[in-house]
Each structure stands twice: as structure tokens, then as C-alpha cells.
């Protein structure tokens, strides 16, 4: 299946150090700047400018300081410090207070207890300034740990925090029940990682069908449901279902990625739905960028066109 093969191919390339170096040199600045379409920039100022522009268009945002899979405690602590600084900068700037983060950026693969400490430091700062923090979901190797840590901080009293479930995983229905029983907020996605067949659906049609099954439950049973997809058929189905059930247009939200289907983002806003844009920024943009290429091979043509365009 092309879909799965292309995800696997780009996931493998995302570990390639030479490619990463080349992309880092040319992707974000200069005339090519091919990654700028999907990444808001490398600095906090770039990120805040992007949030401001999104706000001015009547859209909502969630800000992701890019980074993942850190292999040292120092890097994890540094990421937590950067996030705390980011919370303060966003607070000062007066733009929307909503963050997304990854636990492997905070040391999940190095030391789980330190990862929890790092997360709690960020949640404390975020809580003081009225932020909502979404814990992104990474590959299935991290699902158990991510949900366990989420539940730990929830039980310790943090409430301004939510998680993500992926419809590609067989387990997500059970995970939905576990998270929903807490009354916590769920963002539903299809899943961006190449997963083996013993844990995940391999056919797009099965992933899509599971998405709609979960979306219906999320919309009727969930707390602040977040429907994160660019799939037009699913968007139409969700809109139809919500209307049938008399769920108000602001009773849930749609979410999409920065630079992807901006036409749909604006159209949904114009129809009166809440639309949140996921805004990634930072120097560690390469793995995120490669996942976006893997989702849609046409993006490769876009990158190549930028590289070979006349200057
Ligand atoms: P699908 O891949 O079927 O695409 C449907 C259509 O959308 C395509 O035909 C195309 O038009 C458009 N499209 C999709 N991807 C595109 C791209 N890269 N470039 C251009 N067009 C594209 N995943 C995860 O595993 N953990 C997470 O925490 C998150 N978080 C997250 C937050 C938000 C706000 C969004 C929107 C997505 C995520 N994801 C994620 C990513 C998600 O799992 C999934 O990989 C992408 O959203 C692409 O899948 P779609 O649902 O859009 O459908």
C-alpha cells in the first residue's frame, strides 16, 4: 500500500544525518526555504508572529516547540526550560495560550521520572498563565507510557492538560474509555507514524472507519472534543453527525496543521466552526517535516519546485 510504504520511507529518511544537515542549511532561510510552508520559523519571535497572524484571521492556535527523541537528561531539561521561557514569552505577547508537546522531548526515553518532573514544571508555569497543554501522541512504542504519565499528572491535580488518540491503533477504543472516564480532553488524529500490523490498521479505509467510530463517541461523550484531520470526507461526515445530534458548532473544534489546507481552515471558520491551527516552530523541525512529506508525496514535488525555482 503506497500510503504505508511512503510513511515508512520518509520515517527512515528522517533518521538520516546528512539529509538533516542539508535540509537544516537550506530549508528555513534563503530563496528556497521549502520548509517555511509547514514550519512557522526557528525562533520564539517567528512563532509569536505566526500566532498573531492566525489570531487576526479569526482562527485558534496551539504552539509546538519542535523536538523529540532526546537521548540525554541535559537535553530534556533544556527543552523543559525552553518551554517555560516560551510560556512566559507568549503570556507577555498576549497571544493565544495553548501548547502542544511531546514527552520524548522531555526525556521519556531516558528517565521516566525526570520526564514527569519536566512535564510538571511546564504545567506549573502554564497553569499560572492560564494555558492549555496538549500532550501529543508519538509512536505506539510510547502509547502506554504517554497515557500513564498523562494519568499521573491528572491525578496529581493538573487539569489544563489533554492527550491525543490515534485511530490507526486497534487499542484506541479502549484508551478512549480510559481517558474519557477522567473527563479529560482528547484530540483525535489518524496517526502519523508507521506502525506494524499487529498494533495498527494498514489500510486507509480501516483507519478512516475507525476515525469516524471514535469521532462519533468523542462528539457525544467527550469533553471539548478536538477533531484533527484534513480529510474532507471525514469533515463532512462529522459536520453531518453533529448537526443531526444538535451539537452546537462551537461545542467541539476542528484542528489542522500549519500550512496544510488553509482553504479548508478558512472555510470552516466562515461556517462558524472553531478551527485550531497546530503551529510548529524551532530548530529541530526535520523529523516533523519528513512526516508531512510522507503523508502526501505531492509535497515532495512542492519541495523540489522550491529548490529548483529560479532565484
Ligand atoms: P489523510 O492523511 O488521509 O489526508 C487527507 C487529506 O488531507 C489529503 O488527501 C490531503 O489533501 C490532506 N493532507 C494530509 N496530510 C497532508 C500533508 N502533509 N500535506 C498536504 N496535505 C495533506 N499525529 C500523531 O501521530 N500524533 C499527534 O499528536 C498528532 N497531532 C496532530 C495535531 C493536529 C492538529 C493535526 C491536524 C494532526 C496531528 N497528527 C498527529 C497528524 C495526523 O495523525 C495525520 O498524520 C495527519 O493529520 C494527516 O492525516 P489526515 O487526517 O489529514 O488524513
What topology does this entry show?
Blueprint: H1 2-13, H2 17-26, H3 44-56, E1 60-65, H4 73-93, E2 98-101, H5 112-128, E3 132-135, H6 143-155, E4 161-166, H7 172-182, E5 185-189, H8 204-221, E6 223-228, H9 232-244, E7 253-257, H10 262-270, E8 274-281, H11 286-295, H12 298-308
Parallel strand pairs: 1-2, 1-8, 2-3, 3-4, 4-5, 5-6, 6-7, 7-8
The protein binds dihydroflavine-adenine dinucleotide.
Dihydroflavine-adenine dinucleotide binds at residues 136-137, 164, 166, 189-193, 228-231, 255-257, 260-261, 278, 292, 295-296, 299.
Quick recap of the structure?
The protein is α/β, with parallel strands linked by helices and 311 residues long.
What does this protein structure show overall?
The protein is of the alpha/beta class and 311 residues long. It folds into two domains: 1-39 and 285-311, no CATH class; 40-284, TIM Barrel, CATH 3.20.20.220. The chain is 51% helix and 14% strand. Helix 9 links the parallel strand 6 (223-228) and strand 7 (253-257). Helix 1 (2-13) runs antiparallel to helix 11 (286-295), helix 4 (73-93) packs parallel to helix 5 (112-128) and helix 8 runs parallel beside helix 9 (232-244). It is globular, with a radius of gyration of 19 Å. The N and C termini lie far apart (38 Å). The mean pLDDT is 92. It binds dihydroflavine-adenine dinucleotide. Dihydroflavine-adenine dinucleotide binds next to strand 4, strand 7 and helix 11.
